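quick one, 419 residues, struct below
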Amino acid sequence: MKLALSLRPVALASLLLAGGAALAQPATYKIAYIDPLSGPFANVGELMLAHTRYAIDDINARGGLPGGQKMQLLQFDSKLSAQESQSALQAAIDQGARAIVTGGSGSSVVAALVQAVNRWNERNPGKELLVLNHSSIDPDLTGKSCSFWHFQTDANTAMKMKAIANYIKKTPDVKKVYLLNQDYAHGKQWASYGRQMVGLARPDVQFVGEALHPIGRVKDFSPYLANIKQSGADSVITGNWGQDMTLLLKAAGDAGYNLRYFNHSAGSVPGTVLAVSQARMGQLTWVAEWHPGQADVPKVDALAKAYKAKTQKDFLAPRIEMTPRILAAAIVKAGSTDASKIAKAMEDLTFESVVGPVRMRAEDHQLLLPQVVNTIAPVDGKAVKVGWEGTTYGFRTDAVYTGNELAQGTECKMVRPAQ
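---
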């Protein structure tokens, strides 16, 4: 006690400052991953989780956020359910999450998650959360249902369909089209935009049939294929993903139907190339920001190689891996981990991604990024040089469009918090 009392004021102040600095070591910035990790689409959820975790680990290895703060990833199983996702959201809040990364749960589930975050943020000023959505591409999420707290890091349905319609415009052998889609918001939108945009690009195309099926519950697509064959269709516009895409391909191969398929992201899901190779017929054309084996993208090639070395898994989706990096860039720009300041910093943020510069449009929080139309096809040593998933099938680049070329108007009337 006597020693403590004998300390000079300057020395005591220094001691108190040192103690305060020790207590003020930056806490982790917690990010909650909420997507399906069980059920028929678990392989999709695990893929997206691995890409997200890789980016966060790399950000932390490079020093983390300003002040040395590290990102921490919390993971939750949405079970492809709006109710389960909202329960996961509450658990994430209870564990101190400041941002949500999601996308593969289906647009209706993600919409419910955004609405729940809106309610939480309104009732809990100073404790707001952000939602970064990398794969649920409903245009309403950046349109009439836009939210200041939600950011879309993939091209939306309308942008992707515009790319496909532009390609079909130059593909005269597409003449009769059948619309087969999952019976939920995204499937219905994919069909609607397909009919509108392909019809506008190619008025001569005939739409010869349309059907919706339960998502994740069809085990045998042969009855649907029989209807497609009866319609005389040569092509199918389908928004199916995961198991619903691979089982459709299998049924078509078993039935000997040589169809063309136009899809949004099928090739970035494990098992799709294998399913095409086993069917040995049909052409699956899809659109994304990149495809494996794409030429003249050295930054993605380097990232894919590093990812494979660390995870022993194939790299498939730059947009998912870049999502935490965009968040980190906005935190640096904001100089804060306050959600409102981060959101404002992310608006009109230009980010140098591995697929080139991308920009987060301020008016609706839609990321403008390139889209590549490509087809899963046999290796020929020219257009397709590398096989995938242990097969002799890979990806052929058909067309490349910039985000600005595909950008759509928006119905968004953004409501921002008061300054």
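The longest helix spans residues 42-61.
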